[in-house]
Amino acid sequence: MEECMRECMKKLALWFTNTFKPIMTHDELEPIMATLGFVGLPPSPSPPSSNGGAGVPWKEYVYSAGGWQRSKWIISSVETTTSPPKPRLPFPRIDGLHIYTYRAFIDAVNFYLDMSEISDLFHIRGMPLHREHDRNRKWRRMEEDESVFVYREGTLDQATYNLYHFDKNSSTHNSGNECNAIIRNKGNNAPASSIVSLKDVIVM
Questions:
Q1: What is the Cα–Cα distance from 146 to 203, expressed in whole angstroms?
Q2: pTM over 0.90
Q3: Taking all residues of the chain, what is their mean pLDDT, rounded to a whole number?
């Protein structure tokens, strides 16, 4: 029964649009980030997990190239103590993460690059669980309904969850915080970028 359930489960992955390949580890991501002007820092201890599970180390990227809109951040944060967003992902593997985690990473990258179509650089796709690599990992459902998407336990920190989560039962939630991400639509070989719901993530 458990094996059958695993066959039905899907995970998300970050894809590099230029090569149309999934990025599975920081060893693959760091050279790409370097070409964009980001420098990878050594992995740091895990932040508090949203589900209380054991966390994992995280790797952060610092934007070293000039030209990002610092004035825009200063104006928007005059009355706050927040710092600019930091592109960061769990270490060492970056597949099988929560959609909120990917969204936070992509949003942080685009804060510095300010691309009109960030999906020309990165996008998110669904993938089957790997029979060997994912067999002994602990997984949690992406949503509390019948979603087939799962994510690795301990890879969604509380701050990211608080930022992107919304109450589905509330009629007053901000639609900009829905469980959406920059992904690719179903049914196209070379689809245009769009913002669509999690249930429409294309599965490879």
A1: 16
A2: no
A3: 77
